[in-house]
Amino acid sequence: MQFGLPALLTREVAAAEVKNDWPIIRGVLRWSNRTVLMLSFVTSIVILTALLIFKDQIDSELQYALIAGLLLMPLVALGNLRGAALRGLRHIVKGQFPDIIIRPAMFSLMLLFVPIILTRGLNPVNAMVAHSIAAVISFTVAGALLRVVLPAACKDTLPEIRAKLWWKSAIPMALAEGLRLLQGNLSILLLGVISTTAMVGVFRVASSTAMLLIVPVSLIHTVSATFFSRLYAAKDYQRLQLMLKWVSLAMVLGVFVVTLPFLLVGEQLLASVFGAEFLLSNTPLLILSAGSMIGSAFGASVTLLNMTNHEKRVTRAFGLSLLILGVGAPLCIMLWGAVGAALANSIAFISFSVLTWWDVRHLLHLDTSLIAFIRLDARYK
Fold first, then answer.
1. Which of 145, 168, 172, 204 makes the best surface tag, with the fewest CB within 10 Å?
2. Confidence (pLDDT) at 156
3. pLDDT digits (tens, 9 = 90+) for 255-292
4. How many CB atoms lie within 10 A of CB 298?
5. In this structure, are residues 195 and 337 in contact, taking their beta carbons and an 8 Å threshold?
6. Per-residue pLDDT tens for 15-63?
7. Alpha-carbon distance 121 to 134, whole Å?
8. DSSP states of 303-327 as a string?
9. Burial of 217 (0-12, 13-18, 19+ CB in 10 A)
10. Cα separations (Å) of 5 from 78, 243, 303, 358?
11. Residue 148, exposed/middle/buried by CB under 10 A (0-12, 13-18, 19+)?
12. Whole-angstrom Cα distance, residue 100 to residue 369?
């Protein structure tokens, strides 16, 4: 339901605050809220229609759980929009707090007490209701935080809505997110078709663990997005280039530090967490981590492109990297199984990073890579 709107909202709010363009901030907040509600309504109608058509084929408890979850879609999306606006206003921690801390904490507490309060115990329906209640609390907290930090001048102005322009950015961002999700699951699907179930399990553990290892990179992307947008809007290219140099170094070091334990005692760690049968996951994990480290050496180019109105280039890069993965993964899997899947994913990610870095160099004349840090005299030209 988010349709690329959080990233768009962060960009527009950050750029508008630099220019004291309060009507734009009010306008993009109102437009994004309406867009989420509209998309949620359409999706709900589709789901309810499908439930009516196939009600005899779907378990009644699952039907009730899906209906209870309909409220969850707009609440989570609207809460994320408020978090994105907070980040755009440079309140990075507050922007993350409701979604990362409040909602999971409230959901966990309710899962703990529901079996005690209800005689029926925990089932999919009341679990979904509990998640929706947690989302309401998170949404309320995020809204309250945004009202507190929103500049008074923004509250007293009339909104300026540029729907056509924002849709032109939101659609490529949404496509890019869809391609990213497809790329993340394609290797597992191919392994299921070409290789064995055991190899699927081995790679699944490796890829899931690799996702945890790139959390520092994800945090850096989230934090840097606001400042990229602000510096670009202010045309402060010197400081932007300086920030890009340090971001690339931080990304590489972040991946290296969290990967180091798996490089030293990875098999023991995986065996203790997942079981001895997943010792083989360490090699694909290290290959995925190496790919992440090499890709991170090209810096936060994807975030910079999204924050500077070049989101179509990000979508194109995702499409090309998905094509590379689709062509290379079957052959690699046939030859090396889970290791081959990891190798294909790493090649696709590195290709994506190179493509977005190249676009930044030629469109913005900036260098997001670690090379810019090594070259101490690197500056915007």
1. 168
2. 84
3. 999 999 999 999 999 989 888 888 899 999 999 999 99
4. 25
5. yes
6. 999 999 999 999 999 999 999 999 999 988 998 898 888 877 777 777 8
7. 18
8. HHHHHTT-HHHHHHHHHHHHHHHHH
9. buried
10. 10, 25, 14, 25
11. exposed
12. 29
Q: Please list, in sequence order, all residues whose beta carbon lies within 8 angstroms of the beta carbon of residue 350, skipping any fewer than 6 positions away.
A: 291, 294, 295
Considering just the CA atoms, what is the radius of gyration of the chain in Å? 22
Residues 6+ apart with CB under 8 A from 155: 26
Is residue 16 within 8 Å of residue 25, measured between CB atoms?
Answer: yes
Read off the DSSP letter of residue 19.
T
**Alpha helix positions (H), the chain:** 5-18, 22-53, 60-69, 72-88, 92-97, 103-117, 124-149, 152-155, 163-194, 197-213, 215-233, 237-274, 282-296, 301-307, 311-336, 338-363, 370-374
Q: Which of 313, 236, 312, 232 is nearest to 10 (CA)?
A: 232
Q: Are 219 and 300 in contact (CB under 8 A)?
A: no
Are 249 and 373 a contacting pair, CB within 8 Å? yes
So what's the pLDDT on residue 120? Answer: 62
- Distance in angstroms (rounded) separating the CA atoms of residues 381 and 366: 8
Helices 215-233 and 197-213 pack at an angle, to 10 degrees, of: 50
- Gap between the Cα atoms of 7 and 358, Å rounded: 21
CA-to-CA dists, residue 122 to 128, 198, 341, 353, angstroms: 10, 32, 38, 44
Question: How far, CA to CA in Å, does 78 sit from each of 1, 45, 168, 267?
Answer: 9, 19, 20, 41
Contacts of 110 (CB under 8 A, 6+ apart): 130, 133, 134
Q: How far apart are CA 160 and CA 240, in angstroms?
A: 28
